[in-house]
């Protein structure tokens, strides 16, 4: 079975006016995506933010659940957060994965609510995860998504999550849960 990693990108991303911004790390994104990652066998969940103060905030939030009272109160949270790694940019994530994988190619798979030409279907990516030893890094964007130039650098772009109607602006936590279930759920 292939290995699956995810990265939550906070910069460069868009705001609602399609301007390039940096978003803040949120407590809910840390916890909910970590728990979802642990549930679906994600090897590591990278929180990617260029700001040292934001990474320190994430460390403080996680340390509450990994040390002392928080770890005793909710050991499941401790287990989920054990797979979270903090990095300042995507290049650092890829460099770490390249070292960890010892020569195995790491395929990047961008996610977005918009459709791109290099789109891969869920069933095709799921098949590769189940039938190969390939390594995949799913890229999730905060705000209104990862900027187009970064999306287009990915090896693959996963088909958007579509709901029932025209509205299509899920929280990144919801999108991550749906996508992980489609790729790894029973």
Give an account of the 3D structure.
With 186 residues, this protein is an alpha/beta fold. The protein has one domain (3-184): Alpha/beta knot. Helix content is 43%, strand content 19%. The chain is built from eight helices and nine strands. The protein has helices at residues 27-39, 52-66, 68-73, 75-81, 90-101, 122-131, 148-151, 172-184; strands at residues 3-9, 13-14, 20-21, 45-48, 84-87, 106-110, 119-120, 135-141, 156-158. The strands form two sheets. A seven-stranded parallel beta sheet has the order 5-4-1-8-6-9-7. A hairpin with a 5-residue loop joins β2 (13-14) and β3 (20-21). α1 crosses α4 (75-81) and α1 (27-39) runs parallel beside α8. The longest helix has 15 residues, at 52-66. It is globular, with a radius of gyration of 16 Å. The two termini are 15 Å apart. The model has no long low-confidence stretch (mean pLDDT 94).
> How would you spell out the order of helices and strands?
EEEHEHHHEHEEHEHEH
Coarse morphology: globular
Structural class: alpha/beta
Mean pLDDT: 94
**Count of discrete structural domains:** 1
The CATH class is identified as: Alpha Beta
Question: Spans with pLDDT under 50 lasting ≥5 residues?
Answer: none
Quaternary state of this entry equals single chain
What is the CATH-assigned architecture?
3-Layer(aba) Sandwich
Annotated CATH homologous superfamily: SPOUT methyltransferase, trefoil knot domain
* Tally of individual helices: 8
Give the helix level as a range of percent.
40-55%
């Amino acid at each position: 079975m292939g290995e699956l990693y995810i990265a939550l990108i906070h910069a460069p991303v868009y705001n609602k006016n399609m301007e390039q911004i940096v978003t803040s790390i949120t407590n809910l994104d840390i916890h909910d995506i970590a728990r979802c990652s642990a549930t679906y066998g994600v090897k590591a969940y990278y929180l990617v933010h260029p700001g040292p103060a934001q990474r320190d905030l994430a460390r403080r939030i996680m340390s509450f659940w990994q040390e002392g009272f928080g770890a005793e109160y909710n050991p499941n949270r401790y287990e989920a957060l054990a797979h979270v790694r903090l990095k300042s940019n995507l290049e650092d994530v890829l460099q770490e994965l390249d070292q960890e994988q010892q020569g195995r190619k790491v395929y990047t798979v961008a996610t977005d609510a918009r459709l791109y030409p290099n789109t891969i279907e869920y069933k095709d990516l799921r098949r590769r995860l189940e039938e190969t030893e390939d390594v995949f890094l799913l890229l999730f964007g905060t705000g209104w998504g990862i900027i187009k130039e970064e999306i287009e650098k990915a090896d693959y772009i996963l088909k958007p999550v579509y709901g029932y109607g025209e509205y299509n602006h899920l929280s990144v936590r919801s999108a991550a849960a749906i996508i992980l279930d489609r790729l790894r759920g029973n």
